[in-house]
Protein 1
Amino acid sequence: MSRKAMLCLIAALACGPAAHAQQAAPAEIKIGHVHAASGAYASISMPVYDGLKLWIDQQNAGGGAMVKPFGKKIPLKLISYDDQSNPGTAATLINQLITQDKVDILVADSGSVLTAVAVPIAREHKMLLFNPTGTGAPFFTKDNPYIALLADPASTIWPKYLAGFLTTDGVKDGLKRLAILYATNDFTTTQANALRGFVKQSGAAIDIVYDQGVPTNTSNYGVLINNIAAAKPDAVVELGYVGNDIAFLRNLQDAGQKFKFLFALYPGVETDEVLKNVGAQAMDHVFTYVTSQAIEYKPNVGMTLDQFREAFEKSYKGQGVEFGFNAIAGYHSGLMIGQALADTDSLQQLDLRRALFAQSGKVTTLDGTFELDDTGAQIGEITPLGQIIADPKGAVRNVVVFPHELAAGKPLYE
Amino acid sequence: MRRGLRDVLFVVLPVVIIAAVAPLLYANELLLFSFVMYLTLAQGLNAIYGFTGYLPFGYVGVFGAGAYGFAISVMILGLPPFAALAIGAAAGVMLGLLLTPLLRLSGAYFAIANLAAAQAVYQVVSNPALQDITKGPYGVSLSEVFAPRLSYEVGVAVLAATLLAMAWLRNSRFGLSLQAIREDPISAAMAGVAVVRGRTIAWLLSALIAGLTGAVFAWHISVFYPETAFDIGISIFATVFTLFGGAATLIGPLLGVLVLYGVYNTIGITVPQYFQLIYGALIVGLVLFLPDGLVSLLTRRGIRVP
């Protein structure tokens, strides 16, 4: 064989698979998702859905997402069903996405209750479950490679800085009697347990004088607030879903009751939603988590916080879904799907998993550093302690007060 | 041919065969399981509501008790699935026994008290103080016994047994005595019918069916929270399906599930924004024009419906 023929053969062999791959490239990448447009979980689900959709729309406007095995951009198709906050319906729809729609990427609904039903189904069908915000501990086991928590730190990590503050600066400032009120669901009960554990481990001179769980559908906190006041706490930590926090803060304002240190979960997570419902004065000086909504990370992938907020509000203004942490979570989930597609060897689910896990510790988005442990739980994103400061015009800002290296202000007590 | 045998041959057998082979024809097994689950639950509700007139709004409480009976048997006692199913069924019956005093109430009072009881059971199960037993609000994971195909087949077997029980109730003296109790308990008692015993047996049979169905549900779904197992929507669906098709018949609840749950899954998936409107219109139309359910279209004309 002549050298020229040999070179042609080598060239043909080298180009062959690529040419074949080009032919085999799908016309679109199907992203299957379930969201809750109504019911108990709509307030946390719809922002995630809108954030994810925004990312998909942006990708498609640029020709699609880069998919490495085909060496080109491929349009994305979002197939998302409304489970109406019903776990049984969510389970059926997840199955529908896998078995009937045959999606390439499977994205769970928001929150642990609606994610829970998807976990065994995804595992059974060997589909990687891209899980935006389902932090439930039972989901993450070493024998299940088909799940990854994308945008929410595991529930046990959330109160780390809150506890850190209470057991150091707080004790010094006289916060020695602690009251904990929490809604009895997985998300907030896990945080209450973690908080107790951190306090106990620290050995700080903190006395838990009130510790009460209430049903998640609690909407009147009047009597509970009186009971807390009767225990004479220096610090009150209230952990609930957005509806709980709104009801708690309203009742607190109506009662005219003040606590030296008051923490509530959602003012820092869905700030606009809480502001719209309780007003700036009821939020003023409330301590809360600082999520990516109030921290300017320097992303190496995707938009900055300001850019995303502007794009989100431009796309969804007036549609009843407020910008907040969950919107960021949805967009961030899209970014991580994009990273996985750009780095995967194939659309096989375990290859997608390998590509996604390869991003761990390397990618920073507007949501912070993406980092997974070996069970697929998110451990990179952090929740510092902040304090809401209201201005006379009715606007609020969340100022980081702990840890010291991130602090932008000092805590102000009532 | 005797009526009972005819009902078994022309209703029970076809339904069970279709349910058994359906996974070979349609891949969304969970959707099929949901149909089987609601077919069974609607019949279980039929046993108490259709035959005695007692409407348990909190039927999901017994269902959830069965689910948690199964889950606790697997998690705490380490029992294999079939033994855990028996415990789940027993948990349903035990809760049913505990709630038998509610049968002293009637009409809306029984329905509301039953709903309150279901909420109470839910709050107990989801209480963080019981974490060591029920896992409280943290949810249950039964991945070690997860077997969707086998649990589906067991679900079909439970449906078959339930339909047979209903066919017997529909055609037996005992079933007739229950209907007499429903129409006029005083007259029935004067005619020698044991009213309290009859109601209690019907309620416990209904509780057994719900407990067993809840246990199979727990096995099939394997990861769930108290909110999932005690979802009031399960009670509402079972009740509406039974009423829509026609209570106190074998075929009524079947029709209710097939039509309404079919509509739910078709419209709910394709045009969810219109779902509640269409669903609501269907139910309002039913209440206005067919208060005795779809089967009354035939029974009004003197046609016997199985």
Protein 2
Amino acid sequence: MLKKTPLNKKHLQANAKMIEFGGWKMPLHYGSQLVEHRQVRRESGVFDVSHMGVIDLTGQRVREFLRYLLANDIGRLKNPGKALYSCMLNEQGGVLDDLIVYFQDDNQFRLVVNAGPRDRDLAWITRQAKAYGGVRIRDRHDLSMLAIQGPQARTQVQPLLPANLSETAMTLEPFSACWNEEILVSRTGYTGEDGFEVILSPQKCADFWDGLLATGVKPIGLGARDTLRLEAGLKLYGTDMDEKHSPLEADLLWTVAWSPENRDFIGRNALQAQREKGGHQKMVGLVLVGKGVLRSNQTIYTENGVQGRITSGSFSPTLGVAIALARLPTDTYEQVTVVIRNKELPAQVVKPPFVRHGKACIELPLQFEEIENE
Amino acid sequence: MNEIPNDLRYTRSHEWARLEQDGSVTVGISDHAQELLGDLVFVELPEVNQEIDVEEQCAVVESVKAASDIYTPVAGKIVAVNTALNDEPELVNHSPYEDGWLFKIQPSDLKTDMGELLTAEEYAKIVEAEE
């Protein structure tokens, strides 16, 4: 039985095509994924992300616990309201989940985790917390979540915020949050655009949704969420990252806090060994030269015949070409060959992001026009 | 509810065929097919003058979601392709039976091939069963 978000009826009223995602019934699009993608890049849009898991951790040893639990170091968060992106690893250095942690006060942190691994996360966190007496773990399935993204998003959200938060919210720096008893507002997102994410009760969430739609903010489905995040070079848990691969193999080295050296965190030893040994796979961006669409699981060959694999790929609506994230042998390559429907096509290796704040971040392959004109 | 015009013939793989007054047959994909695929981003068309056999794969439509092979409902020679789709593949989504046609074929055995195709009523039942 699939879980439904509090906005399920509203999605159906808005003509959504619904799909299964991470055990939830979610909107794929409300008519056209491409139109929705462009809507977010040019103006704004709202995503129902109530399938994401919210977990509150409280207690006197919570800071100490999180510094052990996560590969990034929450010790870096100096002031309440700051947020951090981190991987949560197993002992082998594999990624159990990627998440955002909010520092609310010294005895209270909030995690936002992915829908798919949520139950496994809770079990893992509960088990690991046993050595940290007094840490209380609360699964906040009583809360819902919206993401409002795009160059106009923050301005459009402001009038809907409670009076005592409205001003503070507008002065938030990226990756920080403010809250009162009914809503948490953060300047975060998963699209490569500016915007807010809000966490609130189901009833308040429905009102917020209605309020946004009334001011002209368009609903956006998971389809556009996927192409937006891919253009932004953001990895998706379950496809680009999983427990069989370390952050080093998912282009997430930057999220691992090696210093201070005496901080022990789960997976540190395995990760350090892998890093010192070298030779592990790495994740790169690809741009297809010519027409076609890159998709997950397509096979890649390097010039010396070594194989790799696309972890997520699609058509980039902003660039008008196919783009992908792929895992390759560690050596560096400028160009690879992708096998698409039994044809071998060249693809350029690039460094993501592909698009940020509505603008292209990569140069399209020079050969593109030539090949098209052949 | 998907549009299924009465004057066309259909295949189980969701192509449509329309007999034109000049004796050629225009081919496209149904409204139901374009909806299943979602936004098209790329269409690969056959070559003009190419001879193709019935049910031979001769084009590819690719959406953000999936790639789908197109099979010709009738055998013959390709006499025209819809080059507008190179720049605007979304025409297939907006107008599957008019502006979004894929190719025209000069049939070699019209009577046999057309006789094998489904009427709008028969095709509607297939679509209904899929939904």
